[in-house]
Amino acid sequence: MTTADQTELLNAANFIAEAAQKLLAQDGRLQAETLIVSVARLSGSLVLRSFNLEPAPAGTVVLSDEANSWGPRLIEVLKATLQQLGECPSDARIRAALADVSTSASPLDFQESLDRLLPFVRRWSEVSGLDNRQAGVAAAIAAAQLVRGCARVLPLDTGAALAVAGLCEGLKTAPRQEAAA
User: Fold this and answer.
1) Concatenated DSSP letters for the chain?
2) Residue 155 exposed, middle or buried by CB count within 10 Å (0-12, 13-18, 19+)
3) Contact 41, 170 (CB under 8 A)
4) For the segment 144-174, what is each residue's pLDDT rounded down to a tens digit?
């Protein structure tokens, strides 16, 4: 990956994190769990869309070898970004926190999360030339930025575990089919 590619991914990640903070506010307030889970869901969902799988009813579980391959990659992006930002919880700490978290910690369900974020990320991707996988990686970076940014109100282990849960949910949940352009 070239320096220009890395810069474009970081620019996209910054856009996604900033857009999420504006688009996910409810009654002028932000909830850390909603920010992290929604952006992580977006990451997984964007990558899932790149697989060109047969359409499935929205909300159903989609199992694929590609998702099984990409899950660990997105988690590594999340962890590497957290490390770059100063601290990444160990795998053991994330696994322990996973036992106590759920994506239902966000009042927005899976589709509501995507409905709020996807149109803006799509426009950014079209302008910047990012494909779904690249945008998904950028969203994983943004999720890590949000985990770190919310660390004052949500323990880092919990935030990272919520992001992992959201990534996996996004990678394995059929999104609503988009209308043809």
Assistant:
1) --HHHHHHHHHHHHHHHHHHHHHT-BTTB--HHHHHHHHHHHHHHHHHHTT-PPP--TT-B---HHHHHHHHHHHHHHHHHHHHTT----HHHHHHHHTT--GGGSSS-HHHHHHHHHHHHHHHHHHHT--HHHHHHHHHHHHHHHHHHTTTTS-HHHHHHHHHHHHHHHHTBPPPPPPP-
2) middle
3) yes
4) 999 999 999 999 999 999 999 999 999 999 9
